[in-house]
Task: inverse folding
């Protein structure tokens, strides 16, 4: 994983369309609040999707679809299943951004 | 008597119903009808022995031709026995513990119950059954209720209702004094009979409860909240808890 993050960091300079880390966090929080009626202050990076935010597996699929629509990235099912916290979602977007927008 | 009856059922009638003529649907309907009759008998016996006393309120709603999407709170091990005793045909969602037991798993698969599925798969399977005109019974708490109150509801039932376009038909179940509840050993029987009250409540219409144009994940949240409130109200009307 650190490999991909490193290469992402290296690419970030070139790929001007890519979003910065804090922008991605803002976007992800925004999507979560809007899609699932959540309070913004509850959606902190350490918040756990299932336990703290009460998302279920159907919500996870809806979240992925919404993120795909907004970022133009392609989220795979197995990546979805490894997301536990809001920060994980941000990390996945950053990672995919590095891989897919070159 | 219970043991012998159950054994008789298991070794003779189930295979007969399963192996008899007909396609899978016919066989499953036959096995489900057998389970229905067996559960009726079970309840009748338990009442005769003074172990339980059962009061149904609004059970006539379940006699209307289906499909029904029945959702209930889950206070005892025999809630499903009560519910199925009033439904000649009903598909259930069976947990892993059941499905992995050889006999129960076999019976569940013969009955066409939904096993080994989670999340979206359960929703897909239930929607398919309802569209085929079959009734489905669900316990949205996912496990038996805590002593006082209910667990949070999972939202699968709401998703199913929204997608299949059928109303949720809630049943508020109470049992006083408590018996066969979660964490209570089955032999810990109260002195008097367990008095069951099963109140079939007004259906919760899926689409009209939620404004149209609301995305499914939000609609399911709101519908689930409405459903849970409806069942809580039903329990309070019963006067118990």
Result:
């Amino acid at each position: 994983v650190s490999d991909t993050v490193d290469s992402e960091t290296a690419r970030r300079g070139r790929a001007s369309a890519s979003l910065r880390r804090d922008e991605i966090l803002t976007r992800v929080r925004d999507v979560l609040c809007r899609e699932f009626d959540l309070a913004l202050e509850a959606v902190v990076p350490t918040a756990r999707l299932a336990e703290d935010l009460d998302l279920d597996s159907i919500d996870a699929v809806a979240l992925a679809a919404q993120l795909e629509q907004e970022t133009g990235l392609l989220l795979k099912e197995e990546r979805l299943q490894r997301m536990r916290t809001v920060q994980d979602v941000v990390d996945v977007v950053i990672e995919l951004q590095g891989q897919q927008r070159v | 008597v219970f043991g012998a009856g159950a054994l008789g059922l298991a070794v003779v009638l189930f295979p007969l119903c399963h192996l008899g003529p007909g396609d899978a649907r016919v066989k499953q309907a036959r096995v489900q009808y057998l389970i229905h009759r067996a559960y009726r008998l079970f309840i009748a016996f338990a009442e005769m022995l003074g172990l339980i006393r059962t009061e149904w309120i609004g059970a006539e709603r379940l006699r209307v031709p289906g499909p029904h999407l029945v959702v209930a709170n889950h206070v005892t091990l025999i809630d499903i026995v009560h519910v199925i005793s009033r439904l000649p045909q009903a598909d259930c969602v069976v947990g892993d513990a059941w499905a992995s037991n050889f006999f129960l798993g076999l019976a569940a698969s013969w009955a066409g119950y939904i096993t080994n599925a989670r999340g979206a798969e359960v929703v897909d399977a239930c929607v398919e059954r309802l569209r085929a005109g079959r009734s489905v019974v669900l316990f949205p708490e996912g496990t038996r209720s805590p002593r006082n109150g209910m667990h949070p509801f999972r939202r699968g039932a709401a998703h199913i209702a929204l997608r299949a376009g059928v109303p949720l038909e809630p049943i508020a179940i109470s049992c006083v004094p408590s018996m066969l509840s979660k964490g209570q050993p089955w032999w810990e029987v109260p002195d008097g009979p367990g008095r069951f009250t099963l109140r079939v409540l007004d259906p919760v219409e899926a689409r009209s409860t939620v404004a149209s144009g609301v995305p499914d994940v939000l609609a399911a949240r709101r519908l689930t909240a409405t459903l849970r409130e409806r069942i809580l109200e039903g329990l309070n009307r019963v006067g118990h808890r």
